Backbone:
C-alpha cells in the first residue's frame, strides 16, 4: 500500500523501516550524524519548504525523508497498522 508522506510524495508502506518524531531526535548527536551522512550521500529527501517545520523522519531501505507531517498523522494515514519487514506492528 502507498502512504502519502507530505507534499506530493508517496512511498510503499513495505519499504518503511521507521517513522520517528523529529523533535525527539533534535537533541541526539547520533541522529544528527545519521541525517548528516544521508544528506552528504544525497539519500535524504527534505519535504519541508521554508514555511513548514520538520515534524517526522521516515526511514526506508533506500532513503530518509524529512516530512512536515507528524508521526501521529502518518500512523493514522497508514490505518490501524503498518506491516514492517520484520513483522512489527504499530497500533
Residues:
Amino acid at each position: 500500500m502507498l502512504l502519502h508522506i507530505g507534499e506530493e510524495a508517496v512511498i510503499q508502506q513495505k519499504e518503511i523501516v521507521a517513522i520517528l518524531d523529529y523533535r525527539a531526535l533534535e537533541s541526539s548527536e547520533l541522529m544528527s550524524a545519521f541525517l548528516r551522512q544521508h544528506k552528504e550521500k544525497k539519500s535524504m529527501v527534505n519535504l519541508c519548504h521554508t514555511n513548514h517545520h520538520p515534524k517526522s523522519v521516515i526511514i526506508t531501505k533506500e532513503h530518509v525523508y524529512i516530512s512536515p507531517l507528524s508521526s501521529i498523522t502518518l500512523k493514522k494515514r497508514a490505518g490501524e497498522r503498518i506491516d514492517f519487514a520484520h513483522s512489527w506492528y504499530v497500533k
In short: The first helix runs from residue 22 to 25. Residues 2-78 form one domain.
